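User: I'm new to structure prediction. If I give you an amino acid sequence, what do you actually give back? Let's try with this one:
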Amino acid sequence: MVNYRRNFVPGGTYFFTVTLRDRHSRQLTHSIGILRQAFRKTLHARPFSCDAIVILPDHIHTIWTLPPGDMGYPGRWKAIKSNFSRGLEKSGIPVEKRQNGSSRVWQRQYWEHTIRDKDDLNRHIDYIHINPVKHGWVKRVADSPYSSFHRFVRQGLLPDIGLGIGYTSRYYLGRA
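Assistant: Good question. You get back a string of structure tokens that encode the predicted 3D arrangement of the chain. For your 176 residues, that looks like this:
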């Protein structure tokens, strides 16, 4: 197994890609209510800011900002993954298990990138929003039902237009 080195910055902003073990699954969007509950439960126990997100059938891209002094994103991901897997089981959806009893719903690892500055943040937000178009799930960014794009439009950060493959936001967020 590869030995991953994570970058831990107290109060940092991070981009994540988290993927289901079965890359042909559509479980995340089919069970969106269970996934939302897993996020809510984790956010309640260990708050963080979800700055941008898109949920596709088999993976999630998101940007989080942790509270000042906090760098515990691995525990948050563990909680979200566990809560989702348990939620699937409770709803009657069969969940494959490892020998140690843990579920095999998710890939064990995930991609993490520490956001360096405002330009890096904006590039990653653009990547998140265009991803459903890139994967062919929708024709326009606005057609993706599980995307923070809609929140950005409501907040006036992005225009309320369809935005196809040539999408680029050109917005400014003062966070990073």
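You can read the tokens as a compact description of the fold. Here is one thing that stands out. The longest helix spans residues 73-90.
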